[in-house]
Amino acid sequence: MAEQKKGLITRLLEGKEKSEEYARSTLPTNRWQLFWDIFKGNFGKIVKVNLLILLFMLPVIAIVVMRLMLNSANGISYPFGASLGVGYPAYPDVSGLSETLKMRSDLYTYAATAVATLIAAVGISGGMYVVRNMVWTEGIFVANDFWRGVKLNYKNALQTALFFLVILTLCTTMINMADLTLVANTSLAGFRRVWLNVSKAISYVTVALAALMSLWMLALGVNYKQKFLQMLRNSFLLTVGTFPQTIFFAVLALLPFVLFLIPGNLFVVIAVFMVLLFAFAYFLLVWLDYAQWAFDKFINPKIQGAKVGRGIYNKEDGSSTAYNVGESAASIEYKRQLLAAGKSDLVARPIKPIDDSLQVYELPSSFTRADLQRLRESKKNIAEDTATYAEEHKNDLKYVEYNKQFEEREKALQDEVDKNGKKKKRKPPKLLGQ
User: Fold this and answer.
1) Is the pTM of this model over 0.90?
2) Distance CA 118, CA 109 (A)
3) CA quadruple 225, 229, 234, 235: dihedral positive or negative?
4) Which of 29, 77, 113, 399 has the maximal Cβ count within 10 Å?
């Protein structure tokens, strides 16, 4: 009888406190679970963040589309690969023309992209901040946190974007010059031709390395206060030190964009739909989730006061940083409001979080005195367990610091004197709800 289905109103009144989805033991215990928990639980916010990022990425997207159209136009206008013996007019010598046009198009494209980067950095900085707060399992307001992220991280995002753009421009120019030299000078010695091909390979590797370093620079910039050279050095160390994982998660994050490279209109339509819906936010979520794992492993344990395992539930000690938020701006403001309102008994003492270790015995439809005794014992066990938890955690740092603030305030009030030199009689602040 106790397993009978409950009505809608009953479920609404009881809430989800007895639901398995609400129990702390079902919270994410690793980064894979955290990613899925965020993606399915905050999908609406992910779409909003993606639209904001997409809005500021439109200039860069427009430049890429125009570049592709220019390549197609050059292929139609010039007789590359066509038979010179058929048709009129005939070009007597077109060797090197394709490479020259490509070099010129690349320079124009990168010059325009440098200007568009100023706008794109707004979307990158704001989106990184919002998604980072999701990974930290902090409460977020998409619009407010987006612009706060722009204010805090725009410089880092712009520096990173320009760093990658400069490396890409230099390496692409070197590759184009090598191609032009190989085509225009067919009489080059074998050693020189080999050296030019080796230089092209080095340029490709440099671009790939700079791309991975740029991803790490974005993650470092949104998590830590570092100068540009420090970010550059640390990003290189992280790229080299976690190279296989970095490659894997970079490819995993870029999956929605990889669909554009697959032949077929169907994949292009799917890719466009994903870009409009969640592709940019998904990319940031995958990368920052992985980056947080790396920071918890290599950086945070060495920094005094840094939190390790944000958003991950620890089954061993029953703690979860999802509910122990760090000193963010929202957390500091919340503490200020608590101090202004008065001492709260809900914050001043430990309260055991809800879990599935102990449950209240549910009476069947037809119950006996034995059932009532079981109900009474279950409530007693919960009360004793709660008291034991409070006794074990009463000396935790957060409770000690909170109570210390009010003790100092009460002492200062009691030490005040009036105009006649007598101590003022002050009453200690009341607890909330009293």
Assistant:
1) no
2) 15
3) positive
4) 113
